[in-house]
Amino acid sequence: MNVLWVFAHPEPRSLNGALRDHGTATLRRHGHRVRHSDLYAMRWNPVAGPGDVAHDPGEPLRLGPATEHARATGALAPDIRAEHAKLDWADTLILQFPLWWHGMPAILKGWFDRVFVQGYAFGVHDQQGRARRYGDGGLAGHRALVVTTAGARATGLGPRGVHGDAEDVLFPLLHGTLFYSGMDVLPPLVITGADRAGPAERADAAARLDDRLTALPAAAPIPYRPEHGGGYDDDLVLRADLAPGRTDLAVHRT
């Protein structure tokens, strides 16, 4: 595989940094190729705006169409073009970050805001003019694995935990971003109790990561329902005969 590992943690000596280095070595030991986007080390600018598209300040900015046009004409900011080149090279994306306030750090959200632009990751259409999204899209053919750490204990991020089930907490990223743009999304690896991890817990986390990386090429993705698979009506609402009476996020799985 060609793996792009996007890392969003400010401290390379952290548990996250150790897992990133360990995981990279594991992938390379198995013959895979790895490139990195270490967002804090890169001093990544997370703010999408007119500088991304060489926008004329005298005109109103419509960021979606502007980024699509800039990409088509080669006018996107160089740092965005560099990330597109990495994604084009990769067939697998690993996203690693600490879970902060039930979401990703702002710098990683800003990576998505600036890199997953219209006409590239979304806003693409098939030959019938239908939007390609939720199981199809500009990044179809890529696999994605989220690796995240949390200070919470495992039970607190379980099905009845006070924080919410981990996959529900990550649903906006897993389903609303990665699956939306066409990727095959693998179940996330969530390392809990990260703030209190001692040598034994760190070794266990590294072993769990090894297991996931070893299985990465053939692991089954989360079975989300594709938009154009017949499960949704014209208003994009799940058919009444599928998961009847339920409204939880798991209804979007087959």
TrEMBL record:
UniProt-listed InterPro entries: Flavodoxin_fold, Flavoprotein-like_sf, NAD(P)H_dehydrogenase_qn
What the entry lists under Pfam families is as follows: Flavodoxin_2
Q: Is Lipid metabolism found in the keyword set? A: no
Could you tell me the keywords of this UniProt record? Oxidoreductase
Organism domain of life: Bacteria
Flavodoxin-like fold domain boundaries:
1-211
Keyword Oxidoreductase (UniProt):
yes
The cross-references to Gene3D superfamilies, in alphabetical order and at most eight, read: 3.40.50.360
Q: Which family does it belong to?
A: Belongs to the NAD(P)H dehydrogenase (quinone) family.
- Per its UniProt record, what PANTHER family does this chain match? NAD P H OXIDOREDUCTASE-RELATED (PTHR10204), NAD(P)H DEHYDROGENASE [QUINONE] 1 ISOFORM 1 (PTHR10204:SF34)
Q: What name has this protein been given in UniProt?
A: NAD(P)H-dependent oxidoreductase
Where does this protein come from, organism-wise? Actinomadura violacea
